[in-house]
Specification:
alpha/beta, Rossmann fold, 625 residues, 7-stranded mixed beta sheet, binds coenzyme A, 5-stranded parallel beta sheet, binds adenosine monophosphate, GMP Synthetase, Chain A, domain 3
Length: 625
């Protein structure tokens, strides 16, 4: 048996021993005596009697251990021309002081803090400061519009919001403060205070409830870490579901910290003193886990990069960051590599930099297409490792565990399940399928530490969304298969969630916006294949009877409406006005059939269709004939 098989088997033979052993890599105020509390399925709790502080483990533990002068976080921002390194001691001090700011504003254990920030180190400081005093952070991605932020504010009910005067998108300065003010206007819940980081690129108009970050820091007393139950929530991270209302994924501190600390050496092969560069955003789970928490828990150096892979200033920035920081493992989404490939197909920029320290490229967030896999592998000459996970799971479900044993890479497969993940494929009736046969990918309960224990204030939606379709299994929402060698293949979502440039979005949410237009009778939004972004949304609207409109103006208006209400990140650029939408006899819009035709597949006409004529009329529009 190989090393991977050994480790996997030990996690299934003795999960208690395996995870209690993994927990020993952390400092605990109260050591856990039990790993799993399974007394109230489907709600599983990890390390129920343990107490720890995640910020202590990410920062103070390393400083106390004499490693305070090691680099913890490198802020690299080509869009502002800034590069700054924080040692562990410096980052601990910043975090402790900001924790003091929050405490001074009345934030305590269990209170929520919404963080709406661009990719600046202060975003990580705010997250860790919450963890330090037991507050629950909820980071909202900066590309979401005011309304999306308002929905999250109403759900999380924060005491305080932390934001900045602006973000920077290439050469564009995006003012955040007007978006924040608008969101607070729209929200029913009103936070008591907002802390605003003033950036030189834009001024923020400050109101009576706004606190200037720098002034507050200058006046604050540092705050200490407070012991928290392992089962207390560390954060809420909203993610797109089938409807417009996002799901508030809850993450408990203890299980998450144990899983992340395990994953750093075993999956990413990164240990103390080594550097990982994760090019994502703190607003996504990849940013939470592998820009902020996991690298710091491991005592490694993390690079927080503000910018795109291409554009400002050029397509060589990832290579520059790798060379300048001696990056060992890089992690990003395949779409970033497609963007680089488009700008620099021969990889000329790679030859400008010394990339000899780079050992692995990890990709996740969307399906890794074989062409991008091949291009990246040939270009870099290192293992390019696809791996699969979700906001809900917090860390990888399926990966090639480079730190244990590099398994044979089969293009198209993110490889094999990691310890704790009992991955199965079921048919529509809940029966296991034969190896190599497609079905719904599920995970047998309980899931390992780090996976969501529930949804914020919504146990009922947790049960309905994830664990009621197949009794005893977590529904991932992805379809795919497992081959005879145990390799998992993830083919795509089976629900109305799409992945646009590695960003998870809800077509249902966009449909709600289109449907709100007074001229629209009904609509559908589908995700169609896109060479650069993987998928992009396309909208189709049917007008109300008798409504006379300038179609071109309406299309532009609808595109703008989605941009204003969901955010630029929705990337909805195309809306078609059509006479009718294809439906089943029971009235369900045939989105899957539409998607297949738009993607150029030979899609069979479902026998349940109400009228094949409607579909025939739509075909040229879908195919853009
Ligand atoms: N704040 C404000 N606007 C934002 C934003 C933010 N944080 N993030 C994205 N946007 C805007 C973009 O500027 C763009 O606006 P535009 O329509 O006016 O051009 C729009 O939202 C769509 O953004 P995106 O889909 O990211 O497209 P892009 O062309 O700007 O960049 C990539 C494409 C591939 C280069 C970029 O998405 C990328 O690097 N992705 C990979 C890494 C990643 O973030 N993965 C996430 C999970 S691992
Ligand atoms: P998110 O919650 O934003 O991380 O998005 C999770 C979804 O992204 C998954 O449910 C998949 O649909 C998709 N995804 C993530 N990683 C992969 C991968 N390696 N291969 C295929 N799809 C992926």
């Amino acid at each position: 048996m190989g090393a991977y098989e050994d480790v996997f088997r030990s996690s299934t033979d003795d999960p208690e021993g395996f995870w209690l052993g993994a927990a020993r890599s952390l400092d605990w105020h109260v050591e856990p005596t039990r790993a799993l509390d399974g007394s109230n399925p489907p709600f599983y709790r990890w390390f129920p009697d343990g107490e720890l502080n995640v910020c202590h483990n990410a920062l103070d533990r390393h400083v106390d251990g004499g490693r305070g002068d090691r680099a913890a976080l490198v802020y690299d921002s080509p869009v502002t021309g800034t590069k700054r390194t924080y040692t562990y001691a410096q980052l601990r001090d910043e975090v402790a002081r900001f924790a003091g700011v929050l405490a001074g504003l009345g934030v305590g254990r269990g209170d929520r803090v919404v963080i709406y920030m661009p990719m600046v180190p202060e975003a990580a400081v705010a997250m860790l400061a919450c963890a330090r005093i037991g507050a629950v952070h909820s980071v909202v991605f900066g590309g979401f519009a005011a309304k999306e932020l308002a929905v999250r504010i109403d759900d999380a009910q924060p005491e305080v919001i932390v934001s900045a005067s602006c973000g920077i998108e290439g050469k564009r300065v995006i003012e955040y403060k007007p978006l924040l003010d608008r969101a607070i206007e729209l929200a029913t819940h009103k936070p008591t205070k907002r802390v605003i980081l003033a950036r030189p690129q834009a001024d923020a108009e400050m109101g009576p409830d706004d606190v200037d970050w720098a002034e507050a820091m200058a006046a604050a007393e540092p705050a200490d870490c407070v012991p928290m139950k392992a089962t207390d929530p560390l954060y809420i991270l909203y993610t797109s579901g089938t409807t417009g209302k996002p799901k508030g994924v809850v993450r408990d501190g203890g299980g998450y910290a144990v899983a992340l600390a395990w994953s750093m050496p075993n999956v990413y092969d990164v240990g103390a003193g080594e550097t990982i560069f994760t090019a994502s955003d703190v607003g996504w789970v990849v940013g939470h886990s592998y820009i902020v928490y996991a690298p710091l828990l491991a005592g490694a150096t993390t690079v927080l990069y503000e910018g795109k892979p291409v554009g400002t200033p050029d397509a060589g920035q990832f290579w520059r960051v790798i060379a300048e920081n001696g990056v060992k493992s890089m992690f990003t989404a395949p779409t970033a590599f497609r963007a680089i490939k488009k700008e620099d197909p021969d990889g000329a920029f790679t030859r400008k930099y010394d990339l000899s320290g780079l050992r692995y490229l990890f990709l996740a967030g969307e399906r890794l297409d074989p062409e991008t896999h091949r291009w990246a592998s040939d270009l870099l000459g290192i293992p390019v490792i696809d791996h699969w996970w979700q906001t809900e799971t917090g860390w990888p479900i399926v990966a090639n565990p480079a730190g244990i044993e590099l398994l044979e890479i089969k293009p198209g497969s993110p490889t094999r399940p990691l310890p704790g993940w009992d991955v199965r494929v079921l048919d529509g009736s809940g029966n296991p399928v034969e190896p190599g046969t497609d079905g719904a990918i599920v995970v047998k309960l309980p899931m390992p530490p780090g996976a969501l224990p529930t949804l914020w204030n919504d146990d009922e939606r947790f049960v309905r969304s994830y664990v009621s379709t197949f009794d005893g299994f977590y529904l991932t929402g992805d379809g795919g298969r497992i081959d005879a060698d145990g390799y998992v293949y993830v083919m795509g979502r089976t629900d109305d969630v799409i992945n646009v440039a590695g960003h998870r979005l809800s077509t249902g949410g966009m449909e709600e916006v289109l449907a709100s237009h007074p001229a629209v009778a009904e609509c559908a939004v589908i995700g169609v294949a896109d060479r650069m972004k993987g998928q992009v949304p396309r909208g189709f609207v049917v007008l109300k009877a008798g409504v006379e409109v300038d179609e071109e103006a309406l299309r532009a208006e609808l595109v703008q409406l989605v941009r204003d209400q969901v955010g630029a990140v929705a990337s909805l650029k195309e809306v078609a006005v059509v006479p009718a939408l294809p439906k089943t006899r029971s009235g369900k819009i045939l989105r899957k059939t539409m998607r297949g035709i738009a993607d150029g597949l030979d899609e069979p006409v479902p026998s349940t269709i109400e009228s094949a004529d409607v579909l025939d009329a739509l075909r040229p529009v879908l195919r853009r004939d």
